[in-house]
C-alpha cells in the first residue's frame, strides 16, 4: 500500500472593509492591484474601490452603483445599479457618468468582454414575458440579437467564457430552475 501524505495549507484572510455597512459583489481591477465593490456607507449603494492589499476605500460612483467591471483597456468602468435598470459607464479615473444600455437590465444579467457588452433584457408584455440576450459592439455602437424566448420564465445572471465562444445563463420555468449554455452565438 502506498503511503499518501496530505499537506494542509492555510489561506491567509485579509479583511478589506471595516465600516458598519453592507459591502459586496467585488470584482478585480485588470492589473489586480484594486478591487471594485458595492457599499451602502453613503446611505445608498455606490461603487467603491479598495487596494487589494488593504487600505482606505475610495468612492467611484456618485449617482448609485452596485456591480462593476473594468474595461479591457482599463479606461472605463461599466456598472449597474441596485435600484434602477440599465448599464452605465464612467471613466476609471472619475468623470461624467453616462448610460450605455437603457432598459430592463438586472444588475447581474450582463458581461463585459473584449468584443463588447452582452446583456439580457426581460420585458413583461400582456400576460407574456419576452426574454432576449443582446450584444452591444462598443466600437461601432451596433446591437445584435443573440437569443429570444417567449413565455413565463425567470432569468438570472449571465456570463461569457474568456474566449467568447460560450454564453451561460440561468433560466427557471416555475417551479424548477435550469442552467443553459449557448455556443456559436455570433
Strand content: over 45%
* Structural class assignment: mainly beta
**Number of domains as seen in the coordinates:** 2
Q: What is the strand tally?
A: 15
N- to C-terminal distance: 53 Å
> Mean pLDDT score, rounded?
80
Spatial strand arrangement across the major sheet: 1-2-3-4
Could you list the spans in which at least 5 consecutive residues all have pLDDT below 50? Answer: none
What is the C-alpha radius of gyration, as a whole number of Å?
A: 19 Å
Largest sheet: number of strands, sense, barrel closure: 4 strands, antiparallel
Give me the oligomer status.
single chain
Note the total helix count: 0
What shape does the CA trace take? Answer: globular
Helix content: under 10%
Order of helices and strands: EEEEEEEEEEEEEEE
Identify the notable features of this structure and list them briefly:
mainly beta, 2 domains, 186 residues, 4-stranded antiparallel beta sheet, 0% helix, 15 strands, single chain
Amino acid at each position: 500500500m502506498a503511503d499518501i501524505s496530505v499537506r494542509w495549507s492555510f489561506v491567509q484572510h485579509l479583511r478589506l472593509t471595516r465600516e458598519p455597512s453592507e459591502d459586496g459583489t467585488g470584482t478585480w481591477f485588470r492589473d489586480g492591484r484594486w478591487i471594485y465593490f458595492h457599499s451602502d456607507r453613503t446611505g445608498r449603494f455606490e461603487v467603491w474601490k479598495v487596494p487589494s492589499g488593504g487600505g482606505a476605500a475610495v468612492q467611484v460612483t456618485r449617482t448609485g452603483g452596485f456591480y462593476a467591471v473594468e474595461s479591457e483597456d482599463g479606461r472605463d468602468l461599466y456598472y449597474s445599479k441596485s435600484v434602477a435598470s440599465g448599464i452605465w459607464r464612467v471613466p476609471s479615473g472619475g468623470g461624467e457618468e453616462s448610460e450605455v444600455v437603457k432598459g430592463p437590465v438586472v444588475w447581474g444579467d450582463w458581461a463585459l468582454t473584449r468584443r463588447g457588452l452582452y446583456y439580457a433584457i426581460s420585458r413583461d408584455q400582456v400576460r407574456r414575458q419576452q426574454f432576449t440576450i443582446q450584444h452591444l459592439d462598443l466600437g461601432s455602437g451596433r446591437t445584435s440579437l443573440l437569443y429570444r424566448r417567449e413565455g413565463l420564465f425567470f432569468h438570472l445572471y449571465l456570463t461569457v467564457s474568456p474566449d467568447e465562444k460560450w454564453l451561460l445563463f440561468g433560466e427557471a420555468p416555475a417551479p424548477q430552475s435550469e442552467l443553459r449554455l449557448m455556443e456559436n452565438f455570433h
